[in-house]
Specification:
Layout: H1 6-25, H2 30-39, H3 44-65, H4 67-70, H5 74-97, H6 107-119, H7 121-127, H8 141-156, H9 161-172, H10 177-202, H11 207-228, H12 233-251
Helix pairs in contact: 1-2, 1-3, 1-11, 2-3, 3-10, 3-11, 5-8, 5-10, 6-9, 6-12, 8-9, 8-10, 9-10
């Protein structure tokens, strides 16, 4: 495509703000920026690649905003982040070698399962005898496997990967919703970062678009951390479910 018009540039920047905010609080910001780029005529893979790169700075600003909640979670973040990075590399490679539509049909199913797990989290944990691990007890294999799987998904497509990650964290780790959300911000951001590196090396990137989304996502990350941290666990869980339902409807 040629040079962006003022209208297109403004709309993409605004979409970046909205996506950065939603990604920090819930996840699914891609469902704003990706359709915006498609509507403006970008090819699906180019839109996905440019969007993934553009959302990385928003994760950084969101993580800075959640630095209080991240305190004391260094080992947890390193372990889960490493698993997510490995998955992100695999997922981004799959995006480049598989048909663009190969994964899309089952994405709504993944999101629906994640939402169900979030809604039923307390009941499931009671049924399992609440075997989740606290911050000082190390990482259960299920959490690492879940982070790896979320990384694959995030590297391939990314929409609602934050919701999937929150369901994994909520079922495997005993901690507050806000502290788990802070971990989610970092792990999904690392997934986008490593996928972005792969895309820079092997795919076409619309750098003007990526730059506009990056600028907007930084603002959105700050806003999301400022207001998202004030939500109660019940309100945060309800918001995750609401956004997830919207995501399913839009993808179907």
């Amino acid at each position: 495509m040629g040079a962006l018009s003022a209208w297109h540039a403004t709309a993409i920047f605004a979409a970046g703000i909205a996506a950065g905010t939603i990604n920090t609080v819930v996840g699914s910001g891609t469902l704003i920026t990706f359709p915006t780029l498609i509507a403006f005529g970008y090819a699906p893979v180019t839109a996905n690649v440019s969007n993934t790169i553009g959302l990385v700075p928003g994760s950084v600003s969101g993580a800075v905003g959640y630095r209080t909640e991240l305190s004391g979670q260094r080992e947890r973040v390193i372990g889960l982040g490493g698993a997510a990075v490995c998955g992100g590399v695999l997922g981004s490679v799959l995006l480049l070698v598989l048909p663009a539509s190969a994964f899309k049909a089952i994405v709504p199913f993944f999101i629906a399962v994640a939402l169900l797990l979030i809604v039923l989290q307390k009941q499931i944990n009671r049924a399992l005898g609440d075997r989740r691990r606290d911050a000082g007890e190390g990482l259960p294999p299920g959490a690492l496997a879940g982070a790896f799987a979320c990384g694959i998904y995030g590297g391939y497509f990314g929409a609602a990967q934050g919701i999937l990650m929150m369901s994994v964290l909520g079922l495997s780790l005993a901690d507050s919703m806000q502290r788990l959300n802070a971990v989610k911000v970092v792990t999904t951001g690392l997934t986008n970062l490593v996928a972005g590196v792969v895309f820079v090396l092997a795919a076409h990137v619309a750098w003007d678009v990526a730059g506009l989304i990056a600028g907007g996502s930084i603002v959105g990350g700050v806003l999301g951390a400022r207001y998202g941290r004030r939500l109660s666990p019940t309100a945060l869980r309800a918001l995750i479910v609401a956004v997830g339902i919207v995501a399913i409807v839009r993808l179907i």
